[in-house]
Amino acid sequence: MKKLSELYDINSDVEIKAIKINSKEIEPGDLFVCTMGVTADRHDFIDQAIENGASAIVVSKDIENKSVPIVKVDNTNDELSKLCQKFYDYPNRELKMIGITGTDGKTSTATIVQTLIGKDTCGYIGTNGRSWANKEEDDNPNTTPDETILYRFLREFRNDGCNYAVMEASSEAYFRKRLNNLEYDVSCYTNVTPEHLNIHGSFENYLECKKEVFKNTKKEGYCVLNIDEEYFEDMKSACNGSVVTYGKNNEATLQIIEYQVFPNKTLIKWKYNDNYYDIESPLLGDFNVYNLSAGMLVCLSLGFKIEDLITNIKNIKVSGRLELLHTNTPYYVMVDYAHTPNGIKNLLNFVHTLDINRSIVVIGSAGERDRIKRPIMGKTVLDNASYAIFTYEDPRSEEPIDIINMLISDVKDYPNYEIEVDRHKAIEKAINMAQDKDMVLVLGKGNETYEKLKNEVIYFNDIEECLKAVEKRNEKESALVNE
Fold this sequence. Notes:
Layout: E1 2-3, H1 4-7, E2 15-16, E3 18-20, E4 30-33, H2 46-51, E5 56-59, E6 70-72, H3 76-87, H4 91-94, E7 96-101, H5 106-117, E8 122-126, E9 129-132, E10 135-137, H6 147-159, E11 164-168, H7 171-175, E12 184-189, H8 197-200, H9 203-215, E13 217-226, H10 232-236, E14 242-247, E15 254-261, E16 266-272, E17 275-281, H11 286-301, H12 306-312, E18 323-324, E19 332-336, H13 341-351, E20 359-363, H14 374-384, E21 387-390, H15 400-407, E22 417-419, H16 423-433, E23 439-443, E24 450-452, E25 457-459, H17 462-482
Helix pairs in contact: 3-6, 5-11, 13-14, 14-15, 16-17
C-alpha cells in the first residue's frame, strides 16, 4: 500500500491499495488507470470506477473535476508499467528475469527452466498459472498477465525468497503493450509458425511481436535462439543481448549430437564447450529434445554449471504436456496442450513411433481466436491420426458447431472422424472405443481447469474427465463380468 503522493508529485495522502484497469473489478482504495484497449477506451468508465470505490484516477485526457483526485499523464498505456513497477518497488530489478517466447513449447521450456534452477528460488508465470517457493496458484488470467497483476506476482516471488522469474512472453502480450518497459536478463524462443493471425493481422506482424522479447533483453544479457528454426536469422537481427544457440547445427553453442526417443525416456548426447554429455530425460518426443536444450542453455547463460543442471533433469514434469495418465488399462490415455497445426503434427508423429495400434484424438478449437488455422488443424489431425472426435474447446461467444464445421471444412469426405459437441461426451466416446494398445489423445487444454462458454466459465479439466471416463468404463465392464 502506498500514498498517492508517493507515486506522483501531487498533494494527496489518499492511500492506494492496488492498481487496476478494469472498472468492474475496482474496490475501495484502488487506483484506476484509464488505459486505451484495442476496442475500449477506459476513460469511458471513470464514473463506474468511482462508484465502486476508486481512490484516484490516472488519465491521459482532459477530465472534468471528480470526487477523487485525478492525475493526468501523457500516455496511460506507457504509464501503466512504470506505475506498477514503482508501486511494487521494482521487483523486476531484484530478480533475474527470463522471457520465453514461441508458437509451441513456451510452457514446457519455462517449466524446464524453473525445475533446473529450482522451484524454491525460481518463480514461473504462464499458461499453467504460477508457481514459486514451492507454492502454486491458478490465478493467472492470461498466459502473460497485464502489468497490474504481473508486478504483484513478481513482488510475491521476491518476498518469498526467489532470485529468478521465468515467464511466458506471448505475442498477444506485446501486441497489447502489457510488457512495456520490462527488460530480460535472458530471453529465449522455441519456434515460430503462423498463429494468432486474427489478432496480428498478418504473419509478419506476428513475427515482429515475437522479436520484442529480444529487443527488450539487456545488452549484458543473453538471447537464446533455436539455430535450426526457419526464422532464426529474423530473430537474430532483433537481439539486443549476446546471441547463444541450440540445435543440431554444428555451430550451435549447445549442440544436439544425437538422441533416441523411447516410450518412457529420451537419451540425448549434447556438445557444449567442446565437452560431450550423455543424459537421460523423462520428457518424450523430438520437440522436447529442443525444449530441454533451450531450457539448459538459458540456465547456462545465467551462470549455472552444466553438471549441476543435469542432476535436476530427472525432476522435470510438465503438467498437461504429453501427460500419459496412469490408467492401468490395456489402452493408453494422454492429455496434451497441442492446439496449433505444427504442435499437433509433431505430437501425432511422435505417438506413432510408439508401440501402439490406433490413435484416437479428441480436439476442438478455441472460440474468438485464430479462425484461419482451423481448417489446417482439422486436416492435420485427420492426416496424422487414426480417428478423431471433434468437439468444443472454450467456444466463448461462438457457436461450437460453427467452429467444428470450420475444422472439418476441408476434410468433410474423410471417413475417420465424427462430431460430438459436448466435450464431456466426446472424451467418454474416445475412452469407450479404445481397444488394446490404442492411444486416446485429448488435445488443446492440457491441465487447464475451465471452459469458457458463451455466458459463463465452468470448471472443466481434461485429465479429470479422462480418469472419470476410464473409471466409468471399468465399472460397466466389471458389472458385465459379474452378471
